[in-house]
Amino acid sequence: MKRGTQILLLILFSIIILGGSTFIIFEVLGGGFFYRSDTVTEQKGGGYSGQTSNSTVNSYNGQKSDQSTTVSPLSEDTGIIYIGDSRFVGMNDVCHIDSNSNRFVVAKVGQGLSWLKREGLPQAQQIVSSNPSLHHFKYVICLGVNDLADIEGYKEVYRQLSQDHDLTLVSVGPVGNYPGLSNVDIESFNQQLKDLCSECSIPYIDDYTVLTTEGYQTQDGLHYKDAVYQRIYQILQQQVEGITSWENTGENN
User: Fold this and answer.
1) Has residue 103 got a pLDDT over 60?
2) Domain positions in the chain
3) What is the per-residue pLDDT across 182-229, written as a single tens digit (0 to 9) for each?
4) What does R_g of the chain's alpha carbons equal in angstroms?
5) Distance (Å, rounded) from C-alpha 215 to C-alpha 158?
6) How many H helices and E strands in the chain?
7) Is the N end or the C end of the chain the one with fewer CB atoms within 10 Å?
8) HEC letters along 157-200
């Protein structure tokens, strides 16, 4: 074989070897042709996990799920009015929300839509009128567990309320073994609530998914243990009040 041919073959062989090595290095470093999918995972209502008693449901494991939606800390002249049923009563009993000068709780055991229209909203308006030093108010409402069938009525009230109020809606939390209530019905209610929030650009806090993901305990199938109320308020603090760190919240009771 002539020397020129040998040199040419040697050059070609070197190119092949060098090209293969470069390809391997390129792939290891993440190069080459690839498809990238930038997605945002949207949490949806978790399924109903079975329970063995009225008091313990999907036992609380102390693990915190990621909460990526946060807001800036509120100014001192902003008031927050938490409006709800017995679950907000219980949360306030444990977390002492209304001990703060610009945090208020309007809640009553066993109530729902008719109470909201008849008493809840008028009481909230009275709070606004009685606190002129607070120049802005946020309404945070969590109702429906006592009257899930009234979803259309809730939607009508919330749609009107969102037009001239800073409104945030909170999903109905899960239940355990409780007569007349199921998480299937709660998930249906929450989905319609969430759709309304998307339609009207109302902030929506999905604590249902957080609780069914992390685990939760109830006292009687409906009302939560203290640690669960504390966890719910942490979520509200983060997504409504802009607070992202907390002191010791205590152990699950």
Assistant:
1) yes
2) 1-36, 69-241
3) 999 999 999 999 999 999 999 999 999 999 999 999 999 999 999 999
4) 27
5) 29
6) 8, 7
7) N
8) HHHHHCCCCEEEEECCCCCCCECCECHHHHHHHHHHHHHHHHHH
3-state secondary structure of 74: coil
Fold type of domain 69-241: Rossmann fold (3.40.50)
Q: Is 252:104 a contact under the CB 8 Å cutoff?
A: no
Render 101-137 in DSSP notation, one character per residue: TTEEEEE-TT--HHHIIIIIHHHHHHHHHH-TT--EE
Q: Which two tokens stand for residue 78?
A: 């902003």
Q: Is 227 helix (H, G, I), strand (E, B) or coil?
A: helix
State the pLDDT at residue 6: 62
Once rounded to an integer, what is the mean pLDDT over residues 49-56?
A: 38
Beta strands in the chain (DSSP E): 56-57, 78-84, 103-107, 136-142, 166-170, 204-205, 216-217
Which residue has 């999907």 as its token pair? 58
Round to whole Å and give the CA distance between 50 and 161. 37
Q: Which amino acid is located at 203 in the chain? A: P
Give the mean model confidence (pLDDT) for residues 89-111.
97
Q: Select from 177, 187, 178 the least CA-distant residue to 144.
A: 187
- Going by C-alpha positions, the residue among 100, 190, 103, 104 that lies closest to residue 145 is 190
User: Position of tokens 């929450």?
Assistant: 190
Q: Give me the pLDDT at residue 46, please.
A: 33
